[in-house]
Every structure is written in structure tokens, then in C-alpha cells.
Design a protein that fits this description.
The chain has 21 helices and 19 strands. It is an alpha+beta fold and about 525 residues long.
Length: about 525
């Protein structure tokens, strides 16, 4: 889908993370914009694409899960979703087979091709009688107010916006007042990413909902990682979602927009969009329908692990009491620090943004001084989608290297992209897209794997609510670490030293652009 024009009350903000510089730039643009007509995102189709597609679930989710009843009571089923298509199809299949509830919580939920197809699955579930709740952070909402109201008009579909001070339902005066009078609150965002069905199955990890997180963007995609969880710890994920949903920071779109208009709840245009083979390739749909056979093979080959002691740690809504300006830490931050203090042999980390404070550098130095090997893979300037974040990393890169940490920077043409990108997209594109790292993972001592939303930066530590899943399994740790180390190999990454870094691999204009961003305080990156 092409991005539509912006108006002063609903802004399609196409950025990856908030910084003061970006926010002020957006607000400045708004001052110059007049109200313009917003085009309809979807138009009525000229033919009935859905007539030949039988998309009704043949077997309920509970029947698929019934063989695992005992395992789900006594532990948690864990399967790592490494490949983008696999992660996308799993969400779609679960939506299709949900019986009672679907609870969705994301930082970004775009209205691009993947986002529209995902919404279609949720609407179809609601039409079957499934109660659907969608909670999205305000700053990245990629939808117009009337679109949100139309979706929320369905009796089984509820939408809330987290901390709506910057985007939905706010005019330019509102935005400026909120930014200048409550800068900390303006920057406090919900970065959690969970997808929970019937309170029994959850997906959580690094992926938002947009083309680039599943390998379907034509120009730029992310290397990312999620984890599928069955039973066990999913009750904690459900409890966390409920806490966010009922918190005063989460407000329904109906209340925010205060519209008295009666909404048309005919979703045929959306359904036809998702049925159109030009948008949803029949080959991909066939793969989704074949997912039960794939997961049977996964279970039979031991790739689905049943584990006791899995933890899900989420920050509370608001992150902290906000008494410390742009600080305050959080539950996820403290749990990660505690895990690092217990490391004995090695710590292997993937983080798209690596912005360390003195506390972070001292922590890593303490580990290295104890003989613990610390390796970190992060984005290079060439693969990075966020120049503000890279500027924060660039300022401290040498200081971090002096602690003894080994740093690797992801290549934009990493060979691993051929392994994780959709085979359908590879067949369609003449040129492979750039890939950037977005996975937020850590393996400690070949025993513990952490998969979550937490970036190694001050924003994740102090401002954004984050969540992590802690998996005590040698088998999973070895598998995830092997993949992480593969992505540090020369064909996928550059090793950075005190004498050399790959910043020179990009043009001078991008290099200068990063230098200019050093005026942005690291505390909000």
C-alpha cells in the first residue's frame, strides 16, 4: 500500500523510534500543513476475490491443543520463530482458529499489506464471535480516525490507544502543549509486543506488525526473532495484557475521538483486499493452511520444547513513577541486570541499537574482568534505520570496546538474509532488499535464552515499557546462540576494533548526518 497524506489531527508517523529532534521536526512540518482531503485506503473491489476461498476454520484451536493438555499445565511449550514468514503465518493461523479471545499488543501496527491482512484476520475472528482486543501505542498508529472507529464499531472488536498524547485525536496545539509541559510522559511509550489467543497460546518478541518485520518489504527488511509459547507462562502474558488494557493510560478510540457518527460495519472492502491474490499470494495462503502438518513435524523432531521455569517479565504501565526525569529504570531492566550478574562463562547479545550509559559500560567491564566473554551484534551505519540511535552508539563505541567487549556490526547485504527472507518475495524481486538487525536477544552461559523487546539503550532502560521471556534450556540456548554466532561471521557482519569500523562503507552525506545528530541527548535515544 502506498502511504497516504497526513492531516493535522491524524499523522502517519513513519519513524522507528522517538527522539526530541525527530519530534520537533514532525511538529514543525505540521505547522506548515493545511488540512487536505485524506484518500480512502481501501476501495470497493471490482470483483469478488473471496468467492473461491474457503477461509473458515475446520478444527478449533482447542482440538489441536488437546494432546498437550498435561504438558501445558506442567510447563510451557517453547518454539523459536526465526523466519519471518513462519512468524507471520503462525499469527494468521492462530487468528483463524481462535475460539474465545484474541489479545493483541504492539508498538507498531502498520496499515501496509501485512497490517491490512492481519487486521482482516482479526475482523473475521470478531465476525465469528471471538472477542478481539487491540492495544497499540499512540505514536506509531498508522491509521486514520475514521478507520479506527469503523473497526471498533464491531461489537466484538475493541481498540485502545496507549498514552494518546502525540497522535490520535490531537491537534497541533495539543501536541505542542504535551511535548513542552510533560516531556517525560510524552516520551514514555509502550514497546511491548504480544499476541495471545484463547489465553493458551502467545507470541512475543521483537517483531511489530508491518511488512518489513516479516521479510515482505521491497527495499528494507529486519532480521528479527519471536518465541511461540504454549500453556504455562502464557497466563502471565495474559495477566500483563489485562493490566495494560485496564490501566488509565490506555484509552478507547471512541473516547479519544468522541465521534457521534454511526459507523458502517461492512468490512467487505477489507475482506476483498485480503482475498486478492495480488495482495495475499495463493502460495502463502497454502502454507498457512498447511501449518498443522509443519508443527506436527516440529513437535515430533523435538524442536518444540516443554520447559519448566520459563519467565515472562513485563514492565508495568508507565514503566516507573517518573520521579526521575528521563530515568527511573523498570522491572525488565532490573531483571536483565540480575541475569548478567549471574553469568559465569559467556554473554552473547543481539540488539539493533547499542547506546550504553556509564552503568552499562561498568557492568560489561565487570563481566569481562571476571573472564566472561561478551559478544554483541548490532547494526552498522550501513544497515541502521535509525541515525539518531546510531549517533548515540557511535559516541561511545570506543569506550565500550575498551571494556573488552567484542562488537560486530551487521552488514546490509548479509548473506543470512537469503535464509530468513520469504521465498515468495525472493522470487518476485530482481534485487534483494537491505536488511537491518531488529532482534533483541541474549544467551547466557549456554543455559539461558532471553527473547524480548528490550534494546540496549537508555530508552528501553528508563522510558519505554518492555517485556522479556527468559527460557532456561540448554537446547534452545545452543540453537539460538549458534544462529547469533553465524550472524557474526564475516559474510554477515564486520568485527569492529579500536582502530577500525565500517562507517566508511556509506556515503559522506550519511556520515555527516550522523555527526549532526550528536546534539540529541543520549538519555532519550
Amino acid at each position: 500500500m502506498n502511504k497516504k497524506c497526513m492531516d493535522k489531527t491524524q499523522i502517519n508517523i513513519e519513524i522507528k523510534f522517538l527522539t526530541l529532534a525527530k519530534k520537533m521536526a514532525i511538529l514543525s512540518i505540521l505547522l506548515l500543513l493545511g488540512c487536505s482531503k485524506v484518500e480512502d485506503r481501501l476501495s470497493e473491489p471490482v470483483q469478488n476475490y473471496c468467492s473461491t476461498i474457503d477461509d473458515k476454520p475446520q478444527i478449533a484451536l482447542s482440538e489441536y491443543l488437546s494432546p498437550f493438555d498435561n504438558e501445558m499445565k506442567n510447563g510451557t511449550g517453547v518454539y523459536i520463530l526465526e523466519q519471518g514468514t513462519e512468524a507471520m503465518l503462525t499469527r494468521g493461523w492462530l487468528s483463524k482458529h481462535a475460539q474465545r479471545t484474541i489479545d493483541v499488543q504492539y508498538f507498531i501496527f502498520s496499515a501496509d499489506n501485512i497490517g491490512l491482512i492481519a487486521i482482516d484476520y482479526l475482523v473475521k475472528a470478531a465476525e465469528r464471535g471471538v472477542k478481539v482486543r487491540l492495544l497499540v501505542d499512540d505514536i506509531m498508529v498508522d491509521a486514520k480516525g475514521d478507520e479506527l472507529l469503523k473497526l471498533s464499531a464491531h461489537e466484538n472488536l475493541s481498540i485502545k490507544i496507549y498514552n494518546p498524547v502525540a497522535n490520535i485525536g490531537k491537534n497541533i496545539v495539543d501536541k505542542l502543549v504535551n511535548l513542552t509541559t510533560n516531556f517525560h510522559g510524552f516520551n514514555q511509550r509502550m514497546h511491548n509486543k504480544t499476541f495471545t489467543v484463547d489465553g493458551k497460546v502467545s507470541i512475543t518478541g521483537g517483531r511489530n506488525v508491518a511488512d518489513e518485520y516479516f521479510g515482505y518489504d521491497h527495499e528494507y527488511n529486519f532480521r528479527d526473532r519471536d518465541v511461540l509459547l504454549l500453556g504455562g507462562i502464557t497466563k502471565d502474558i495474559q495477566t500483563s495484557f489485562n493490566n495494560f488494557w485496564h490501566d488509565s493510560l490506555s484509552i478507547s478510540v471512541d473516547e479519544i475521538l468522541n465521534s457521534k457518527d454511526v459507523q458502517n460495519t461492512n468490512y467487505n472492502a477489507l475482506h476483498q483486499y485480503a482475498c486478492d491474490p495480488a495482495n495475499y499470494a495463493p502460495k502463502v495462503r497454502d502454507q498457512l493452511n498447511n501449518l498443522p502438518a509443519v508443527f506436527k513435524e516440529i513437535e515430533e523432531t523435538g524442536k518444540l520444547q516443554w520447559i519448566k521455569g520459563v519467565e515472562y517479565i513485563s514492565d508495568v504501565p508507565g514503566k516507573n513513577d517518573a520521579k526521575e526525569f528521563l530515568g527511573g529504570s523498570g522491572l525488565s531492566t532490573q531483571r536483565l541486570i540480575a541475569l548478567l550478574h549471574k553469568a559465569k562463562k559467556s554473554v552473547t547479545i543481539q540488539t539493533p541499537y547499542l547506546i550504553t550509559t556509564d552503568l552499562g559500560k561498568n557492568l560489561f567491564k565487570t563481566l569481562v574482568d571476571k573472564g566472561i566473554e561478551v559478544k554483541i551484534l548490532t547494526n552498522s551505519l550501513a544497515s541502521n534505520d535509525n541515525l539518531d540511535a546510531f549517533s548515540g552508539y557511535q559516541r561511545d563505541r570506543k569506550a565500550l570496546l575498551k571494556t573488552g567487549v567484542k562488537i560486530y556490526e551487521f552488514k546490509p547485504d548479509a548473506q543470512i538474509r537469503q535464509k530468513v527472507m520469504s521465498d515468495v518475495m525472493q522470487g518476485q524481486l530482481q534485487q534483494m532488499p537491505i536488511f537491518g538487525l531488529h532482534a533483541k536477544s541474549m544467551v547466557i552461559d549456554d543455559d539461558i535464552t532471553v527473547i524480548g523487546t528490550f534494546n540496549v539503550d537508555p530508552r528501553s532502560a528508563n522510558l519505554n515499557t518492555e517485556s522479556i521471556t527468559i527460557i532456561p534450556s540448554q537446547k534452545i540456548a545452543n540453537s539460538v546462540k549458534q544462529g547469533m554466532l553465524e550472524e557474526m561471521l564475516p559474510e554477515n557482519a564486520w568485527e569492529v576494533t579500536l582502530k577500525w569500523n565500517p562507517d566508511g562503507e556509506v556515503n559522506k552525506l550519511k556520515q555527516i548526518g550522523v555527526k549532526l545528530r550528536r546534539i540529541v541527548p543520549k538519555s532519550i535515544l
